[in-house]
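Hi L., both proteins are below.
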Amino acid sequence: MFLVRNKTSDGSFSSKNDEVYHANFSTLPCKKGVRKNVYNGVLRGTGDKKGDKVLVKAFKSKETTEELCTKELERYKQAKSLGRTFNKLVPSPSNKVEFNVLLAVPVEKVAFTNCVRRSKNKVTAKEWVIIEENLGMDFKDFIQKDGTSVLIDPTSLDAFVHYSYHKSGGKLVIVGLRGVESETDNGYKLTCPVIHSYAQTFGDTDRGEEGIRKAFEHHRCTNMCYAMDRPQVKLSDNLKANET
């Protein structure tokens, strides 16, 4: 018995000319999200990441085009850029935030078993997919899409939400923070951020001004937040009670 997998075209996670990868990935999704199907994969190629486990993602409601993938990458680039400047301000490495590296490439070959499957969501040849590092079994939600924290006490992630608004000049806020917390005091490794912006330029999860307002209705400030700008929002009665 042998396993035939789908295969992506080559691409690179870095600017190094000798780092070229493709991913072999399963024909059946390991997870079905609201917007995307997720497949287990393995990197093949010439760089240091060869053999690493990855996740391959494809949109469910529509064919995953290069344009859709570009919008996803723009969110990650924005989050990574703000994460780098935020990390210069935090008091210790355990407070740092880091975002996953993404690669967007078209599918080159589709396994025969995938071709014969009767599914409207199956991956097809020439469709674009997103490849990212598999963060493992300890993956969890920290900050939800509406800015609600699932953690008991405020952390540097709450501060980063506020910082993203402040540093962008009030143009956006980054929420939907999910990933893993390092066991070696290296902070948080995150993926799938959601950005709400006044211009609504960050894909179909961007809820614009309403998303920003909701995020700050649910936001919990830390000691880092007090010198930061924030929008004027009307707190709900429950949130007022929590602040007193």
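That was the first. Here is the second:
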Amino acid sequence: MFYFIFLVAKTFSGKPFTDVSHFVNADGLHIFTNCWEPKGDVKFLVCMLHGFGGHCIRFNELASYFTEIGGLVFSHDHIGHGESEGSRTTVDDYNKLIRDTYQHVDIVMEKYPGKPVYIFGQSMGGALAVLAAHAKPTLFKGVILVGPMLLIDPGLQSSFRRVLIKMAAYLAPNVVLTSLPESRGSRDQDEIKISQEDPLKSSDVKSEMALQLLRIGEQLEVVMPQFTCPFITLHGGDDFTCSVEASKLIHRVAKSEDKTLKIYELCRHDLVHELQEDRIKCFTDIQNWLKERLQLNS
């Protein structure tokens, strides 16, 4: 007698993927998705990319600023992040994250043909957004960057440390090299507590992921001076995680004819969850930037 056991793929929190929105990527991994729809007609599309250790549900408040003016917002948890499948908070090739982004964009564009598409990226998601838009410059009408990770961490810049990371990634890819403290992301203590207690978040940087972050930084060094897409960069002046100088750098060196830079002097890395007054200003600045380019009156 033969017994067949069918394993049902489940999210990180244990929900069957048959019960949640998702797509299956080229590696056969289930990628959790979320969508925020406007009340009226869809005027434009926004693909949102979260940062390292994060997940897409955390974009609820910001997404409302897009849907309010007719945007259909869609996002997904990167491989190994949030509710998606994959080794926790790591990937063996960062290009897979960009590949999955294109797949998600194609899925949504098929449902809403002819609508302009914008790409939003926060932190590591900002780096991925720049690389994705540069590789397919006609796909996106504009790029929105919030606290983007655009320069290699100074602690990784020496040749010796780069060699050590490459060795560690090869010999022990899942060893944790460091953890990013949630407490330095925002001045809003309530948001810090929510982040610290969020079971879907993880701040552990494994050696394999450290290598991919290093490679992302190396590629950005090449791409930034060649970047031509319209973009807006928003960065906290007291960001201890991703360099505000990198945001100034891309604004200075990019070939884009349409580029905007806004620095929020007292804010930290996670502008999306900063003090209410400051994040509303950031969200409103993004909304107004979109209105101007989409020629929306309301």
